[in-house]
Amino acid sequence: MQEKFTNRAGDVIQYHKKSTIWPGIKLVAIINRPYMGWLVGNGANIDFWRHTWATEIPLREYIEMPQSLWKRCIA
């Protein structure tokens, strides 16, 4: 990271550097999405209504529900 985002003097660069690996990461994520899953653990960081569990949009967008019922599940 230091090599990529600092100049020869060690100062942080002030311009955008295009990633050479990000396009590949995005492609692999698209291909592998059907085979990926959630590791819920104790559920403390899971937001049932706002996270995209199985589709590209969150569950709350599929149904009409008052915002007051979206209760976030983070302790």
Question: Any overview of this molecule?
Answer:
The mean pLDDT is 77. It is built from two helices and no strands. 0% of the residues are buried. It has one domain. The protein starts with a helix and ends in a 43-residue tail after the last helix. It has 75 residues and is mostly helical. The longest helix has 11 residues.
Strand content bin? under 5%
List segments where confidence is low: pLDDT < 50 over at least 5 consecutive residues: none
The tally of strands reads 0
SSE series: HH
Helical stretch tally: 2
Please state the CA-atom Rg, rounded to the nearest Å.
19 Å
What proportion of the residues is helical, as a percent range? 10-25%
Total count of domains: 1
Largest sheet: none
Measure the end-to-end span.
33 Å
Shape: elongated
